[in-house]
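Protein: DUF2891 domain-containing protein
Species: Eiseniibacteriota bacterium
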Amino acid sequence: MSVVARAAPSAASLVELILAAVGREYPSHIVHWMRSDEDARPPRELTPAFFGSFDWHSCVHGHWALARLARLNPGAPFEARARAALATSLTPAKIAGEAAYLGIPERAGFERPYGLAWLLQLAAELREWADAEAAEWSAALAPLEALARDRVFAWLPKLPWPVRSGVHAQTALSLCLILDWSRVVKDHELEALIARRARAWFESDLDAPIAYEPSGNDFLSPALGEADLMRRVCPAMEFAGWLAAFLPDLESDRARRWLTPVTSPDPSDGQLAHLDGLNLSRAWMLEGIASALAPAERRRALLEAAAREHAAAGLSAVSGEHYAGAHWLGSYAVYLMTRRGIA
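Structure follows.
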């Protein structure tokens, strides 16, 4: 059962919000490794498919969200516009341009892991869509999909410790997205690697320091991200025991304070707007963690109640008023509302 209330934004309104961003080139924030003056070019030339939505990863997950909403709502009035945007971006020529940009050795760390994880989510969505056009887009995206997969596979064994941050570099959230892709495409080699690394990093963790969350510009929870990954890796009984050791005080006052939705003091500020996204990602992580517990477990009810509170707070902040949030919060709303990673 979804933790999202009926007052959530409509799929149509989310499509409009996302469409207003994915084709909007400016303002733009790019992390661009330059070799010479010739590399000083506009975003639409550097990354011809994913130049909008302020930054590359937001444009990628904006396209994922359009694909997901179109796939789950066939015949909806917004479907044609979502398809048109996908058809404009996901052409062989534009994806070849993306692959050429990412492909040089000096850009081996480009958008790793967060942007690459969302790219693989887009690829998974297209593969799961039983549709002729989607199959064409999937085929066009395949070279970039393969590049992203290989970059992740080469990098993971070299990462000595997980990044336990509340922003883009967080290891756990990206591995959740990549692991789900690996299972869609039956990439057993990558799936096994992620499971091994997750266990090596997180299996022995005890008593997560939840009092230290959140930081002032978080849009992800380090503790919940880790737990959401481990519920994907561990069998149900093992996960229930692991969670008891990792978050032993879920019914305590300390946990209740931590499981309280946050409020952005200034949604027009790009860093402070992250806090609106924190409510959304906490909500889907809480729901995912709860889904791995037995229905009669008291912890499940507590986690689902917290997920509902965070979902309500997060979804109420999704709007087009400030581009600081409007360029990316729609995708997070779609991930939560459609129960991606759970359903």
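Remarks: The chain has a mean pLDDT of 96.
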